[in-house]
Amino acid sequence: MIAQRFFEENLMMDLRFNILNEYVEKFIVVESRFSHSGKEKKLNFDLNNHKKFRDKIIYLVIEKEPEGIIKLKNGDSSSSVQRLNSIKRIEQSYEYIKFGLKDAIENDIIIFGDNDEIPDLKKCNLKNIGKKIYIFEQKILNYKFNLLYDLIPWYGSRACKLKNIKSFPWLKNLKNKKYAFWRLDVLFNKLKSMNVEIIRNGGWHFNNLKTAEELYNKLVNLGHHNEFDKSKLTVKELQSKIDNKLAFYNHKADKTSNNKYEFEYKLKKIDDDQLPRYLIDNKENYIKWFD
Length: 291
Known about the structure:
ten-stranded mixed beta sheet, Spore Coat Polysaccharide Biosynthesis Protein SpsA, Chain A, two-stranded antiparallel ribbon, globular, about 290 residues, 12 strands, alpha/beta
């Protein structure tokens, strides 16, 4: 089974279904009626747009905000409170996946990630996964399918047997490193594991394949929306970044940095052979998203 969260990325959903279809028995799609910033939104996922995969899709809708949301008073724009509320909404969406697993058995393999994280399952043998937890090291592609942000890899999709999942927030936040058996500190840290295996060159994180307007709407509603709000970036400025192939978010900045959006990095064009085979074989259907 493969589990994913959905916001409004129909382009990526179509691609994801087609690339992973041969490996997957069921797709679990979770969508909330609330954005990460807490704004009510319409449901964007439509089963009728994916009739080819209809029998494989389990679609779950989150109808209510999670418990523990801190209400902001009029005029209060506390960044820390906004971030804490976002985390609660994100973790709610992760945990909601379990409602799609009612017919799963403990040895079923669950592949978990966000909609724009596509693992390359040719790089591992899921039949031999055993007790291991696979974490896929993925390329970050920005704006277009073939524009690479090469400053860091992206540790996105994860896979393991259902019986080894403590919780989905735990799986998402598990450290992307395998620790030696003699590291006693691992026994006392729930986010470290001796059973992790990193799948190198293990897929793609197709990030921000959107128009400037769509991208702005995403950024004001995502989990780190409080950071973006501080940047004061406009739709026009985002369009300039896209046109000039400039990444604008510094993933290497310290967590306490207040200027993660005060950043520019030139993206690099990559060859088609570094992309999913399905995408290249059907390139004419996605041509507007190639540089």
